[in-house]
Structures are given as structure tokens and as C-alpha cells.
Amino acid sequence: MTRRLAFLGGLLLALAGPAGAAPDLAAQVKSINDGWAHITYEMKGSSHQTVALAQLDQRAADLVAHNPGRAEPLLWEGIVVSEEANRANIFHKLSLATRAKDLIEQAYRIDPRAGHGGAAMSLGVLYYKVPGSPFGFGDDRLAKRLLLEALGMDPGGLDANYFWGDFLYDQGDKAGARAALERALHAPHDPQRPAWDAGRRREVQALLAKIG
Known about the structure:
- Helix content is 68%, strand content 0%.
- It has helices spanning 23-41, 46-66, 71-87, 93-110, 118-129, 140-153, 158-170, 174-185, 194-211.
């Protein structure tokens, strides 16, 4: 199946760090998360979004620098960079996507369960969104393994089911995609992340409408 070149429509992971995470770190990770959701779903104008993402990327990188060895800051820097890849021109997409993969792989190595499966999910999305060899590092078999790993950790999650459904649709499995997307819509609403919750559900509905 022809690959889509818009590498990532945005990824969303659980905000809380692992048990014992410092409250100030959790709050700073949430700030990056909220900033990403605002830029992705609420900010108007692609040029404004590009500038805002670059600023958020720097904030995330600073958070990583001040918290060495922690998975959550790495994960969120990778998510922000992947959103930059999604919006970049064709000459910069692959380099940004590769940088995002490197960051999220570091987070995954530190804690494979980071973000309640979000690290595995984020890598899986990159592997099916990015073209394969010789143009990129895409790998559908690896994507499937990682997405199923993430789904096993968060079987009722909005993101886990949305991206699994999107992957199945990309593979031509409309029935499987529809079932996953319907599960996504039954995920509990998250009042702590209203911009993401509403925005992701709109994406789910849009893909369901596309499937027909």
C-alpha cells in the first residue's frame, strides 16, 4: 500500500510519570503535553504553529537536559519533534522523523512501559508512517509489533485504539480498523486534557467517515 508522507498526525501519551516521579517533573511534562495539544488542535495558521513548535521543542530539550536518564522528557521531546516533521517541507521531514525516532527509542530503552505504552506506540506510529527503504526507516512488521505491545498495555485507550485502527486502515483492513476506532470512541473522556481529548476524537470520527 502506498505510504502516506505526513509522518505523524501527532501522538498523545499518558501525562503522569512512573510511580515515585517528582511532582515538579510531572507538572513540567504536562506543560509540554498541553502545549503540544494547544498547537496541534487549537492554534490557527501554519506559520504560527511552526514557530510555536520550535519553541516547545527547545523547552522539551531543556527538560531532557535537566532530567538525565528519565524516559518521560525524552518521550515528549520526541513527540514534539515528530509533530515538527509532520509539518515540515519534504526536504526536512525525514531528518526530523529520524531525530524523533532516536529520542523515543532512548525513552523506550529506559522504560518500555513509559507513558502506559506510549513509548511503544510512538515508535510504532513512526515505523508505519515513514516510508521504508531506500527512502526511510519505515517497517510495517516492526510497527505492528510495537502497536500491539502498546495496545496490550492500554487496551481501552483512545490513542492506542486510534493508531491501531489507523494502521489497520493503512494495511487495507477496513473492518478491523472500524472496530478499533469504535473502541477508541468508547474510551473515557479526560477532563485534564480537553484539547487533546476533543481533537483526537475528531480525528477518530474523520477516519470512520473516510472508511464509510
